[in-house]
Amino acid sequence: MSDTKIIGKGTWIDKLASELLEREKTLGRSTDILRVESGLGASGIPHIGSLGDAVRAYGIKLALENLGYKSELIAYSDDLDGLRKIPEGFPDSLEEHIAKPVSLIPDPYGCHDSYGMHMSSILLDGLDRVGIKYEFRRAIDTYKQGLLKEQIHTILQNSVKIGEKISDMVGQEKYQKYLPYFPVCANCNRLYTAEATEYISGEKKVKYTCHDTEISSKKVKGCGYVGEADISKDLGKLAWKVEFAARWTAFDIRFEAYGKDIMDSVKVNDWVSDEILGSPHPHHVKYEMFLDKGGKKISKSLGNVITAQKWLEFGSPKSILLLLYKRITGARELGFEDIPSLMNEYNELEDIYFGRIKVDNQAKLIKSKGLYEYVNLLNPPKQPSTHVNYRLAVELAKIFKEDREQRVMKKLLDYGAIKKAEPEIEKLIELAGNYSNEFDQQEKSQITIDHTIKKALKILVNALDAEEEPEDIQNTIYQIAKSNDVQPKDFFKTLYQIILGTSRGPKIGPFISDIGRKQVAKTLSEYT
RNA sequence: GGGUCUAUGGCGCAGCCAGGUAGCGCACCGGACUUUUAAUCCGGUUGUCAAGGGUCCGAAUCCCUUUAGACCCGCCA
Description:
Blueprint: H1 12-27, E1 34-41, H2 48-66, E2 71-78, H3 115-130, E3 135-138, H4 139-144, H5 149-157, H6 159-170, E4 181-183, E5 194-200, E6 205-210, E7 213-215, E8 218-220, E9 226-230, E10 236-238, H7 240-251, E11 253-259, H8 263-276, E12 283-287, E13 290-291, H9 308-314, H10 317-325, E14 332-333, H11 339-353, H12 362-375, H13 390-399, H14 404-415, H15 423-438, H16 451-466, H17 470-483, H18 488-499, H19 508-515, H20 517-525
This protein binds one RNA strand through strand 7, helix 8, strand 14, helix 12 and helix 13.
């Protein structure tokens, strides 16, 4: 028998946290506070993947605290990053700011102090809305305050060694020629155009020349300025291949997750941290990127970018947390169409947590309960909430477009899906309503209507003028079908196809009465 | 050139990361109740879990090799 001991709450988060602790013990470092970090991009529209990095790091923080340690999440916005291309939907006027640090570019919408803060805020707002707590830091402040100056100095003194190692490890040769430091050109404010070739160690200054370069296969003109930049005063930033290491060391970071796209950079940074800066690199976990659903290009505009804000129009904060906490390995194609199952999966987890669903396998039970706790940020509710199947709510929302909230609520009560109206259900109806408006296109099924059905439809149209009670309508429809040699099943199906565009639907009598008999009669008469 | 991930009944997928009876949704088909319509209930294709090897009492799950596909890196961040 393999004695599988369960760590913490049995999830991958607990496992990672415990690995981290083991490592810290081996290294013999102080465990007074274990900082975890998440890097936020500030140059593009922050999508759910960027949010995931921070949410998962926060999960590790929670796990560490759960194991009795103090922890903190640093959310670091790299707002010295240069603008490389204008994101979809942003004004062309940004063109003149290409290659400038995003924190020095004015916010095109005027609501934040810079373009960079505008972007960061979108992500921070997402974090706030799902309940993630963090300590926010900005690259521009970090450099301005000289927090990294010692690390920069050490790195530049060892630039030859580093350049060779980078070439060795990842085959990138540029740092054998240039220093891994980009000054912001004192003349034109641009990054990357100013290439640094020499470090004057005694004065802590780099010499640079601002010349033409290529960014994202686009030419960017340099201004020709030749200057010197003081690494502790003047603006500039380390190349990414070495910057993490400097930050990890300066901030004493013990954990950082990363996406596979920056795997090489992390590899180099780990080496720089260990060998050059003499400070063991943080513990890592690699995750796959979220991909668009293969083949389904929703729209070329903003539609493809899945932001937290857009997600929250359709799904609860918990559905996002569930998505991000349920697993970390594996490539994932992600789309808004995943929301309904995540919404329902959360309810299922809640049922397991409160013992309403039996799970035989002990390890799986613990894991499911643990996942539920993490999705609730380790502060699970005392009582289970009222569950309504999300897809059912979407179906009902699709049918009732006017007075949606009230009418859907009434239907849910009629169906016995809920016992009384609650604010939580109202919210759910709102989410499901948004979802149905945005995605639930009417399926265009071919409607086959033969002459017998046509005849029956005519009779029904006339009958609808007279009938009043929902139950009578129901019976009338059935009778009409029978007396006209139409299978009731087929007749009902046809009616649903005409009225709803689907082959099934709610009980038809009350439903017709809900929509309005005259309205239905009118619609049906178009098919007779 | 380097790297990562994916491969499971007709379709879509879960399970794999901490090995212990191969599952879910949908589709389709058959049956039951026979005004049956949010329908509900029962049953169905006996899945070589991509191929091969290894570890183990035991492998879809861990390790190695192979095949196919996707993605990332080799500008920059």
